[in-house]
Amino acid sequence: MILYFLALVLFVMGLYCLVAKKNIIKKIIGIVITEYSINLFLVLVGWRKGGIAPILLKGMQKSEIVEKGVDPLPQALVLTSIVIGLGVLALMVSICLRLYEKYKTFDMSEINRLRG
Amino acid sequence: MIKRALIFLVLAFFAWQFLLMVTGWEGLSGLGEIARHYMEKGREELGAANIVTAIVVTYRGLDTLGEVSVLFLAAAGIGFLLGAGRLSRKQDGGNAGGLENEKTRRKASEILETGSDIVVPAIAVFGVYIFVNGHLSPGGGFQGGAVIASAIVLLFLSHPFYSLNHGVLKVTESLSGTVYVGLGLLGLILAGGFLDARFLPVGEFGRILSAGAIPVIYSLIGLKVGAELVGILEQMRRPS
Q1: What is the ipTM of this complex?
Q2: Residue among A8, A95, A101 whose CB faces B19 most closely
Q3: CA B122 to CA B22: how far, in whole Å?
Q4: How many alpha carbons lie under 13 Å from residue A47 in its C-beta half-sphere?
Q5: Cβ contacts (< 8 Å) between B88 and chain A: which residues?
Q6: Per the domain annotation, does B129 fall within a domain?
Q7: For an interface test with A, which of B4, B9, B22 has the most A Cβ atoms less than 10 Å from its Cβ?
Q8: Given CB atoms, is A6 within the 8 Å cutoff of chain B?
Q9: pTM of the full predicted structure?
Q10: pLDDT tens string for chain B (240 positions)?
Q11: Checking phi first, is residue A90 left (phi over 0); if not, alpha (psi -120 to 50) or beta?
């Protein structure tokens, strides 16, 4: 149970970073922390007490892994989500690089103002 | 002040929603129907020891194809954003931060260079090991590709003037992507459906060459992801 609350704490921390900080790099870090807390939460949903990894080893009975193994589906989907998160992160950082080239700052409130 | 209150309200709202999800969740008592099917049939149908790999590559293969295309789109977007004809270079009349950057960039120390020369090939081989063994042990194409990209990061850090062969990168990426889709179509023709790995023999359980086309497909994904990540790094490294 406590693990789920840790995921929640991580989520709120990332969200705070996202909405309260002015520096866009810090905002990106906030987004990434939020994303990872969700990934952690999803993996925890598939976890069960005393679970073993969903990998069949040699000489292992099939009933053993069905009875004790953790749910493989959330793991597979979180793998997808991590990779997509990586792609989005790289895209965000490159947009920030372009913004820095144009405005010479990472501060959101200064980027806000219009330029002709 | 109002802003702080708003921030607090937003955080409280999301935390409350999350809490509603968490409370009352007693943990998993047994596997769901689909998960149970994958766990029970994964070995006979596909011969893969790692059930997660079986799901990623075959049962939910279409998801993985989408995932690879999302990564490709991100890499293409980065190429578009950071590619040739960047604003600053034109504005500064050719005398861009680029040249300045070249000056400030200096050679790495002897220890870093020698150490990375020893370690980089080992990391790359480890990456290959991870994606070739994806169907037997924890690991797979995406993880292996990321490990290979991390070897290249080390190379970039220790050899600041190192230039990559872009042709090899492009050919690797597009070839592995095309062959991946081609193997998917082969599955459609010879086996049960798109991206079905069973058109190759299942083989002996626990061997590297087993589990049908899963190791082939995952190696291709690993090569593609590695080449894509290295391409992204190269774009970001280029002096602006």
Answers
A1: 0.81
A2: A8
A3: 43
A4: 12
A5: 101
A6: yes
A7: B22
A8: no
A9: 0.81
A10: 888 888 888 889 888 888 887 777 776 677 777 777 787 777 777 777 788 888 888 888 888 888 888 988 988 888 888 876 554 444 444 444 444 555 667 787 888 889 888 999 999 999 899 888 888 888 888 889 889 999 988 988 888 777 777 788 888 888 888 898 888 888 888 777 787 777 777 777 767 777 778 888 888 888 888 888 888 888 887 665
A11: alpha
Torsion from C-alpha of B16, B20, B22, B25, nearest 10 degrees: 170
Q: Which residues pair with A55 in a beta bridge?
A: B50
Domain that holds residue B223: 48-77+111-240
CATH of the domain at A47: 1.10.287.3510
DSSP character for A70?
Answer: P
- State the residue range of the domain holding A38: 2-115
CA-CA distances (angstroms) from residue A106 to A23, A69, A101, B29, B31? 5, 46, 10, 48, 47
Tell me the C-alpha distance between B138 and B129, whole Å: 11
Q: Which helix (H) or strand (E) holds B52?
A: helix B51-54
Inside any domain, residue B15: no
- Nearest neighbour of B39 by CB, restricted to A65, A77, A95: A65
What total of structural domains would you count in chain B?
Answer: 1
Residues 6+ apart with CB under 8 A from A57: B49
Which of A58, A83, A95 has the CB atom closest to B71's CB atom? A83
How long, in residues, is chain B? 240
**B131: closest CA among B64, B194, B219?**
B219
Number of domains chain A contains: 1
The verdict on a CB contact (< 8 Å) between B38 and A84 is: no
